[in-house]
Every structure is written in C-alpha cells, then in structure tokens.
Design a protein that fits this description.
The protein has 8 helices and 15 strands. By secondary structure, the chain is an alpha/beta fold. It has one domain: Purple Acid Phosphatase, chain A, domain 2, CATH 3.60.21.70. The chain has a 7-stranded mixed sheet with strand order 4-5-8-9-11-10-12, with helices on one face. Strands 3-2-1-13-14-15 form a 6-stranded mixed sheet, with no helix packed on it. α3 runs parallel beside α6. The termini are far apart.
C-alpha cells in the first residue's frame, strides 16, 4: 500500500500547490500606477529577485512567458513543475500580495520554440489556467488559446492589458540551412509562406474588438519581441506579414497610449519603433524584461537591434512601468529595466499624450 499512499499524497500536494487560495485578484476599480514585468524563470533554481519585486510594491505583475520550464508532453510533469514554482517562498510572497496577469511562451506552453504543432496544447492550456486561478466557468476554458483583455481603473485612468497568445495558433518557423548558420546568432529567418500566422484568424478578430474598448493606457503582452527584427531567434519579425498586420491593426484601430512588453530573450532592453506610414502614428515602445533567474550573462552572443534605446542588460532583471497620472505636464509613463536589487539600469519616460496621432491629441 505504501507506493499507492505516496502517489496519492503527491497528487494532493500538487493540486494544493496549484490551487487559487494564495492568488490575489486584480480589482477592476484599482488605479494602476506601478507595474512589474518579467519572464524566464527556472523553477528549480534560486529566485532571489522576488524580494526586489515585492519591495517595488507593484499594483500588478505581468508574467510574460517561460514562467516555468515545463518542456514535456506529460501533464502530470507539467503540473509538478508549476508546483515547484508555487512552493518557492519568494514567488509565494509575490503571489500573496500582487495580482498577476500572465501569458505563456514556449517552455511553459510545453516545448522549445513550439507553435500549433504541439499536440498537448489544449491540455497544457488547462494546466496554465489552473495555476493562474482562472475560474472553471471562464470562457478561457473553452476557447483555443489564452488570449484575453482586461481593463482596470475608472474613466480617465483606465489601463487595458491585452494578452496575446503567440503559441497556440502559430505556424512553423522557417529555419536557416545548417550550412548557412552563424554560431550563436540563432537558427531562424523570416518566412515567405503567405499563409503563415502568429495569432490565427480568430485571435486576430478578437484583437480588433479588444482595441475598440475605451482605455487611456494599453499594455500589449507579447511573449516574443515586436520591435527587434535583426537577430535570428524567435520574434515577430520571423513572420513579416504578420508583424505588418499587427502594426496595421493597431494603427487602424485608432488605439492610443499603447506600449508593448515582451520576454523570451534572457536579456533586457527597451526598444522603440519610430512613427511611420507602415508602423504607428506615434512611437511604439517595446520593453523586453528577461530573465528573472536565467540570464545570458556576459557571453559573446550579440543580438543586433536598430530600435534599441540604451544598453542590453544580460543579468537577472525585471521590468517596471510607472504611470504618473498627476504629472504637471500631463500623465507620464516611465519604462525601466531593474537589476536583482531593484536598481534602475535604464529608463525611458514618455508623455502618454505623445502616444497618439497628432490629430487625436486634445
């Protein structure tokens, strides 16, 4: 009987680890002023950075993917790995104090660099939703993918979180021939497949509707980078028609106050795509916050990015967005990269009124 009892106790432990009891809900009436963001957590390694996240006292934490390294087709294993993260004292402290809004990337989705070819994507989605305490009757339980939008705050100070799913519907990546690869520069290239997609038809329709909802600030959560296009790792630039469609969708919606937060790269940077006829009518900032405890370190890997502002930071980090609704010259947003102690490595400040086409500014 002992093996049976052991297995039963293990199952109870895993279920309790994933239970929503310790999770904080995001109050729809809260005025959001301080946002933390991060990605890429090895659940079985030390996670000292959570202390700095708690000290920052964010109103919400954005988890941008690779929230665990699952990499499995066994959902019991995936649940167990989420349980390891849940049991980490630092993460538990954050989870008990700060509401979390999360998307997934490849490793918590289930396989390295995977898209719609991952056979266990529907099962993995349910494990993800269980861990992040999504109610059993939520529409997210029935749809294909974890995309959704959340608006919080009163009129005049509304923040919308637009959570994209860049995995569930994504087409296969185009690979560089082995003979043409440069060591350390990544294996992928832009696809020339006219039918290739990142979001899939239904998510594209949903996004157009989400952008029509009223909000003063919009934060798009994309697990992969939007701005950077020159490196050969995962990014929106691997699907140039889809990236162009994203810019077109954002532009034609008339949405203002919009910035992107991304993860994945195991290094942090702030990028900005300049206004233009094929982009947006205002600067598009992309704050890449990665990695919480799995950084690139001081290796030789170079990742060119013509849109980068300031340095690329390769040590453990998290990102922050601070909204000053009462700034004398009008509401401002400060995007920052912070190190393991919470100290600012690099920051960019923008007037929220400047995140709008000239003819829409009051």
């Amino acid at each position: 009987m002992r093996p049976v009892i052991t297995a039963w106790c293990t199952a109870i432990f895993l279920l309790s680890s994933l239970a929503p009891a310790g999770a904080r809900e995001l109050d729809p009436a809260v005025v959001v002023q301080r946002i933390a963001a991060g990605s890429c957590i090895r659940q079985d390694k030390p996670q000292p950075i959570w202390r700095a996240v708690v000290d920052f006292a964010p109103d919400v934490l954005l988890m941008l993917g690779d929230n665990i390294y699952g990499d499995t087709e066994d959902m019991a294993v995936l649940r167990e790995k989420y349980g390891v993260l849940a049991a980490d004292p630092g993460f538990a402290a954050v989870r008990s104090r700060v509401p979390i809004v999360a998307v997934w990337d490849d490793h918590d989705y289930g396989a390295n660099d995977a898209g719609r070819e991952y056979l266990w994507r529907r099962e993995s989605q349910q494990v993800f939703l269980d861990f992040f305490a999504v109610p059993s009757d939520s529409p997210l339980r029935a749809q294909d993918g974890i995309y959704r939008a959340i608006v919080v705050g009163p009129p005049g100070r509304r923040v919308q979180f637009i959570c994209l799913d860049t995995r569930f519907h994504r087409s296969s990546l185009a690979s560089i021939a082995l003979s043409e690869r440069v060591r350390g520069e990544g294996p992928y290239k832009p696809t020339d497949d006219p039918d290739a997609t990142v979001l899939g038809a239904e998510q594209w329709r949903w996004l157009a509707g989400a952008l029509a909802e009223p909000a003063e600030v919009r934060i798009v959560l994309s697990s992969i980078q939007v701005a950077a296009t020159e490196h050969h790792w995962e990014q929106w630039g691997n699907f140039p028609a889809e990236r162009a469609r994203l810019f077109r969708t954002l532009r034609e919606s008339g949405a203002t106050g919009l910035v992107v937060v991304s993860g994945d790269r195991h290094s942090a940077e702030i990028s900005c795509v300049a206004p233009g006829p094929d982009t947006l009518p205002y600067p598009l900032y992309d704050l890449t916050a990665s990695s919480l405890n799995q950084p690139q370190g001081s290796g030789k890997r170079q990742e060119p990015n013509a849109h980068r502002l300031g340095p690329r930071f390769r040590e453990p980090n998290f990102g922050t967005l601070e909204i000053d609704w009462e700034a004398p010259a009008g509401p401002t947003m400060t995007l920052a990269i912070r190190d393991m102690t919470g100290a600012i490595v690099h920051a960019e400040q923008v007037q929220i009124a400047d995140l709008a086409a000239a003819d829409t500014v009051p």
